[in-house]
């Protein structure tokens, strides 16, 4: 349920109304915009009498929300959320590119990639330290050593880092990570979602391989329910019957998220098709559809990559794609985040 307040309500009267809701055992999501203030009520709202609420002179209208996701719902928070990370803004017209290798393989590799993607205009360095793999015999990542190398790349280049977590047991290792990525396979790892909800870290939540949009938003709701509102969504393609590409990028997810939610949405064109020759056209489509950023796999030597080399751009290719991204983001009125 949402309660829309009249413009410029008196604080004392709003506080009295909010005490009434908390006395009923309800949680309140307070959202104050430029022209509208909304109280989003969560809990058992069946006991709330709409006429009683309208009797408060600060209330303009009351509306019940039928969707199961509440806190991430645009009805609860009409204005776009902007997440600030290391001086960069994500969402609401700010455009970011997060680039780097699928997995961290060595100090020389990650430093070279970090320096190159920064020079090309990327605002974040992505790289995998812990790698979920289908086969137990595939390269699983350098784990804690990989995190150390990412942090060294951050120290040398100044780029904030994005990397994936696989277990709540590893949270302490991620203390200096700027954005924690929750991968597609863990989108419904509910214990991990709850732990991330109790953290204060920005979370990049990837859509599951066959998740519906409602399931995707409900996973974000888990993190919000724990108190962490620094969540951005990542569409990375869903599994279909098609065999010529790895996954199908759901471009419709972008306008759908913009309608249903206030959260930023990042597109991962690399995992979507699993082919480097499709990264650029899918990036163009994402920008045109209104995405808030891109997550692009980039490697200094894709042919020798230990993980996902087929979908990784080499360094000259990334530079060329970035020039195209800059032109198109500018044309669409999106502010590409500068170096900080």
3D structure, described in words:
This protein is an alpha/beta fold and 340 residues long. The protein has helices at residues 11-23, 50-54, 107-120, 144-157, 190-197, 213-225, 253-260, 269-273, 279-289, 315-331; strands spanning 2-5, 27-32, 37-42, 59-63, 83-85, 88-90, 94-100, 124-126, 161-165, 179-182, 203-206, 231-235, 265-267, 293-297, 335-336. The protein folds into two domains: 2-63, Phospho-2-dehydro-3-deoxyheptonate aldolase, domain 1 (Alpha-Beta Plaits, 2-Layer Sandwich); 83-336, TIM Barrel (Alpha-Beta Barrel). The protein has ten helices and 15 strands. The strands form three sheets. The chain has an eight-stranded parallel beta barrel, surrounded by five helices. Strand 10, helix 5 and strand 11 form a beta-alpha-beta unit. The protein is elongated and about 70 Å long.
CATH arch. level architecture of the largest domain: Alpha-Beta Barrel
CATH class of the largest domain: Alpha Beta
pLDDT averaged over residues: 93
Largest sheet features? 8 strands, parallel, barrel
Quaternary arrangement of the chains shown? single chain
Instruction: Give the uncertain stretches in residue-range form.
Output: none
- CATH superfamily descriptor of the largest domain: Aldolase class I
**Number of helical stretches of at least 4 residues:** 10
Number of domains: 2
Q: What is the H/E order? A: EHEEHEEEEHEHEEHEHEHEHHEHE
Distance between the termini: 41 Å
* CATH topology (fold) name of the largest domain: TIM Barrel
Secondary-structure content class: alpha/beta
| Rg calc | 21 Å
Question: Proportion of β residues?
Answer: 15-25%
Apparent shape = elongated
Number of strands: 15
Proportion in helices? 25-40%
Largest sheet strand order: 7-8-9-10-11-12-13-14
């Amino acid at each position: 349920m949402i309660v829309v307040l009249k413009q410029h309500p008196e604080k004392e009267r709003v506080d009295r109304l909010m005490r009434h809701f908390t006395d009923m055992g309800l949680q309140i999501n307070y959202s104050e915009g430029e022209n509208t203030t909304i109280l989003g009520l969560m809990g058992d709202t069946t006991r709330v009498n709409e006429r009683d609420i309208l009797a408060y002179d600060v209330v303009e209208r009351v509306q019940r929300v039928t969707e199961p996701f509440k806190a991430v719902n645009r009805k609860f928070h009409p204005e776009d959320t902007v997440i600030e990370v290391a001086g960069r803004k994500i969402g609401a017209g700010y455009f970011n590119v997060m680039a780097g290798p699928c997995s961290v393989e060595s100090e020389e590799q990650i430093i070279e990639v970090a320096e190159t993607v920064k020079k090309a205009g990327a605002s974040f360095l992505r790289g995998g330290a812990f790698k979920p793999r289908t086969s137990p015999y595939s390269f699983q990542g350098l784990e804690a050593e990989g995190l150390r190398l990412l942090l060294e790349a951050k120290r040398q280049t100044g780029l904030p880092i994005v990397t994936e977590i696989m277990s709540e047991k590893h949270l302490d290792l991620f203390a200096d990570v700027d954005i924690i990525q929750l991968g597609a396979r863990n989108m419904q790892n509910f214990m991990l979602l709850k732990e991330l909800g109790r953290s204060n870290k920005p979370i990049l939540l990837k859509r599951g391989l066959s998740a519906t949009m409602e399931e995707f938003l409900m996973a974000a709701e888990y993190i919000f329910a724990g108190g962490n509102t620094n969540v951005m969504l990542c569409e990375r393609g869903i599994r279909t019957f098609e065999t010529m590409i790895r996954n199908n990028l759901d471009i419709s997810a972008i306008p759908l998220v913009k309608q249903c939610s206030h959260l930023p949405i990042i597109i991962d064109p690399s995992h979507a098709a699993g082919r480097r020759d499709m990264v650029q056209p899918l990036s163009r489509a994402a920008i045109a559809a209104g995405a808030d950023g891109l997550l692009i796999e980039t490697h200094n030597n894709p042919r020798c990559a230990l993980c996902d080399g087929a979908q990784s751009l080499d360094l000259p290719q990334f530079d060329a794609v970035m020039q195209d991204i800059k032109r198109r983001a500018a044309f669409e009125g999106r502010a590409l985040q500068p170096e900080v």
